[in-house]
Amino acid sequence: MSKQVTRVDTLFLHQVDDDYLVVVQRDGKRVLRGKLELKETNAGPRPLRFLVIRKGEETPRDPSQFVELARSASRIRISQQTSNDGREELKEMLDGYQLEALVVRTCRRCSANGRYSPITDETAIKAEHEYVCRDCAVRELEQELSFAGGLTKAAQERLEELLYETQDLTRITNLLQGELDPDLTKFDTISATTEDVDLVDTADLDVHPNLKSMLTDRFETLLPVQSLAVRNGVLDGDDQLVVSATATGKTLIGELAGIDRMLKGKGKMLFLVPLVALANQKHEDFKERYGHLGKVTIRVGASRINDDGNRFDPNADVIVGTYEGIDHALRTGKDLGDIGTVVIDEVHTLKEEERGHRLDGMISRLKYYCETRAARRDDYGGAQWIYLSATVGNPKWLAQNLRANLVEYEDRPVPIERHVTFAKGQEKPRIENRLVKRAFDTKSSKGYRGQTIIFTNSRRRCHEISRKMEYNAAPYHAGLDYKRRKRVERQFANQDLAAVVTTAALAAGVDFPASQVIFDTLAMGIEWLSVQEFSQMLGRAGRPDYHDRGTVYLLVEPDASYHNSMEMTEDEVAFKLLKGEMEAVRTVYDESAAVEETLANIVVAGKKAKSLNDRMLGELPTTHAVGKLLEWGFIDGLDPTPLGLAVTRQFLSPSEAFRILDGIRNGLSPYDIVADLELAEEGR
């Protein structure tokens, strides 16, 4: 016998037809594989033939070599899958040499391939009608994954965790076919948490009598985050950054301060939001709630076109606006009147690549406007600033740099279950339909049906998905006209819709009390979601006055991306988002953004533009930006040229301005110029 098998850890015997497969292991590795045939003798069963198998070839050996191997083995094991007769025959043969063997449960697939893989109740994994070892189950899972398009390491690890947990391969592979096994799709639960806060009685608030009357009719006490804001000086005129989860009552904090100061003659309230859809909703809410106390108007800058002036009244007591709408008023020298309170909702927008620097600049320009206006009349102490967000990764830094008191409330009114399942793009609507039906067919303990928000990455996809829902569903995005959006909002509020399918329009806080959020994709447009955007969107699931819990589903397409500029795949992004840390809110300036904001500051403040630059969150290279503005002919000295005025009033980046100028010089029609701009924006 070869010297390399003189020391044997395990000798394993497994029946294959009429022969027995022999596997010899040393240090956990197979060192010999062979076949054994027995014969019946007067002394009982004995080896008749022993064949060693190497590289597919069978080489006869003296049967005594098998006996030698068996004697040198530390343990001998017989597969439980061997027939009863076979086990008895093997045991009788081994007894004849005074050798003992145990019958063990083994992986049949390994045994058939000459591998010894014992399995137990704890390690066996069910694969259809048999039980296999973990290695065989993982190999089969990997084959299924290759058919599904291939998953990244994080996704594979997640599936393997579930495989070991459930010990059922079929249940795991069914996930790849879009099966909705809630025990397997569930990734985690964000628990409901309530911070212990002494609530403020509305009757004790030091506010204008008309406002107090409204408040005491609606509530006996303020909510926890509202109570914290009052105790931190929101009714004393102190600036505040309020960071608290969706549906915890942040908006009322701004209303408390703004309406109170307005009624006391300390200036009007500006309530500013990032999107037209959200501005429209807030405008309607405020007109209904406060219209009897003062005039409410709206100022938006849709598609960079100034509104016609019919709806906007600069003399109103409450102005609801988009960031761009108010910034356009500042850039064009509009008189906004005396401002007492500015509420910046969704202030985390400051970190966004395109919109962040514009919000940063608008805040600086609006502060300059308010300070200049207050200097003319000093019978009240200037504007109070209140910043609201549900998702800020660096709240202390942000509050310090905004020069605001931080009010942070760690609260989740209802628990949120987060689920992950895998599906091809064309299969997702089928799964979404089942989830929407399941939610709508269920009522909460408060008596409300479950309703769903489906987030996807394009307006076209919104319509495509909503058409495939069996229950009433509607698309909702910025491309719909105002009346249609309002109709959808009304239908959802009345529970006439089971689902809305939207792009980014709802992420920023349009008020749809949904119990369930489904991510049809993890992209918005051609970019992956950030952790902050993802958290903001999933926070729409579950409202304390309506639902017992929120549910979130991520429908992940393996190995998918939605634009060639995307470096990651959807399954990679899914686990990055689920496990990721909230990003810091900071505004980062490249040359283009620095030039754009410096030009806007010059248009608004002239020679004082540098002081506006200096107090913005991002670091602006002012000298370099001014040099570029001079070089490009946007300013003359520190005065804007007609070209500079046109560029800043239309919110054009330098590259967009040059592209338009080139189009004009080349005789292109306005339609061709616009098409060229759109293609450039899409990276085409």
UniProtKB/TrEMBL annotation:
Keyword Zinc applies: no
Keywords: ATP-binding, Helicase, Hydrolase, Nucleotide-binding
SUPFAM superfamilies: P-loop containing nucleoside triphosphate hydrolases
Domain Helicase C-terminal: start-end pairs: 435-586
Residues annotated as domain Helicase ATP-binding: 231-410
SMART domains per the UniProt record, alphabetical: DEXDc, HELICc
InterPro entries: DEAD/DEAH_box_helicase_dom, Hel308_SKI2-like, Helicase_ATP-bd, Helicase_C-like, P-loop_NTPase
Pfam family, one: DEAD
Organism this protein belongs to: Haloferax profundi
GO molecular function per UniProt: ATP binding; catalytic activity, acting on DNA; helicase activity; hydrolase activity; nucleic acid binding
Name of the protein this chain belongs to: DEAD/DEAH box helicase
Residues making up the signal peptide according to the UniProt record: none
